[in-house]
Design a protein that fits this description.
The structure holds two protein chains of two kinds. Chain A is of the alpha/beta class. In chain A, 45% of the residues lie in helices and 14% in strands. In chain A, the strands form two sheets. In chain A, strands 9, 10, 11, 12, 13, 14, 15, 16 and 17 form a nine-stranded mixed beta sheet that branches. In chain B, helix 1 packs antiparallel against helix 3. Classes of the chains: A alpha/beta, B alpha+beta.
Amino acid sequence: MRADLARLAYRGRTASIGFAHGPFVRVDAAPSGRHASGTPEDEKRALRAALESGGRQIASLAHAAGGEAAQILEFQVVLLDDEDFLDPVFAAIAAGAPADAAWSSALDEQIADYNSASDEYLQARSSDLADLRDRVLRTLRGGTAEAPKIPGGAVVCAEDLPPSRFLEIDWSNGGGVALLRGSPTSHVALLARSRGIPMVVQLGTVAEPAQAALLDGERATLELDPSAQQIDVFERRRDAHRKSRAAAHAILRRPAASWGGEKIKLLINIQRVDDLDHVDAQYADGVGLMRTEFLLGQGAGLPDEETQYLAYDAVLRWAGNRPVTIRTFDAGGDKPVPGFTEDGEANPFLGVRGLRLCLARPDVFAVQLRALARAATLGNLRVMFPMVTTPDELEAARSAFVDVVRALQARRIPAVLPELGIMVEVPAAALTIERFKASFFSIGSNDLAQYVTACDRTNGTLGKLSDPLQPAVLELIGRTVDYGRRAGISVSLCGEMAGDPRCIPALLSCGLRELSVNPSALAQVKQTIDRLSRGDARD
Amino acid sequence: MLETPKANGQDFTGSVRLIHAVGMHARPAVKLTKLAKKFKAHISIRAADAVEWINAKSVAKVMALRAARDSIIEIKASGEDAEAAVAALVDLVETDFPDSG
């Protein structure tokens, strides 16, 4: 055990969540030894034999692993059969280069090329090439193509770990991967996630030799030769993680949440497209709220139509047949955007924000509506407007949208008018809900509660006054839900209340049957509804 | 498809928009080259407006195209089954590289 503990804890980036405590094993890929070179003909034969043997090994790994892993390794298999790729290597050998040098330099050139790419996905592919390079080199340089054995449950540490190396390790007793470089988007990270093996990448330099290690895929840390106290903290974190994951996942996998015999739809709120990567997102019944303000914060100026269209398209593709509700720009208030929102408002929360701002800036609004009208042809899209106060505003937005659709269609660009709804967050709208000709209502409980109680939700000293469970707030939610039921218009709630187990009984009692929450809250909300539902059954 | 396969001298050509979320990366490139190899025709592709045509049967070359999402891929083929080859490749890209392909 070492006294200097701080020096032995490393932090990286999470590539796969989970915990591993086991022997610490360094794996350094660079094959050593020298290949004894012969005549160009001998060299060509040696390389052909090594390529064939490498191809066989990879194919058998792919066969054993199947599924996603097989698809990942197929790139290497196809590359070994690519004449355009191999011809220059054989040409170099014909010109006198030894087989191993010719092979390495061809691969190194490709690897450098991939590494210099600006996109992280392509950079990550370079480890596939390094994998192929080293496998063939091992055969050329000494026959031991099989890599050294790794004990079960080990924390395997390497510069980077290629997919085929990962698949050769026996993970049946657990274990984890600690990479000094690596990337969360690499193939090996994908494999680790699908097998539930924790992986932390980009740890930097780990020079110390060590016997044992703790790998925490949640905090993205690696601790070497841990003290009894470190192990104790680690095991407690691991245990808590295991319990909550098991409970939540058992519930998430069940078909639909239901309460009082009625199905409860659970949708997710997303801030950006990447939020769909959350492991639980797949269990959602759809996207109840896609915020679009992230588009306003990218690069210089306001986002163009194509940038927006690609983002909407990505979400609709992910959703398949499930509904996706996209909210038009909700800037202003606490979300100022240079070049878009008004400067110097005395009270921005009661100022030109949400739909008010979009109607005041038809140039910016039209770009978003065009992108949405085009995206609406791709899937089950619904569009909603934020901060609507009167029916006139909804009609003004609808008419702008209709104009945009007509103009696109006149240019023979596929576009349709999606279903239009409103956020119910201004008390005036909630009080006169039957006057809005909307296809759906989505209650924004954060702003609704703040406007009804006249409490700034960020002001902690207001305490109970700002509680969304205030009868006045529930009254407005109840009215909206009642009207929706009578008129056959769907009503959902997408504020923080929906993800708060304390509020859920009241929301269900109000008659709400659609809740939209952050992906990370999905499991807990489903669990809460499940408990309430079973409590009912016992009564 | 932006254009149907058409004869241009001895070549058949077609073009198609790449809709794959991450562009022409490993899996789409593998699928494209594997399909191309099923044909006897000499098949070349390029990202629209690039000067150089590359061999559609070489995965290394196809990856090196660095074709981004939404770029237009041009395909040309010559030889006995060239017309079918162009149609098949256009269909593969257009249907976003389905797994059954």
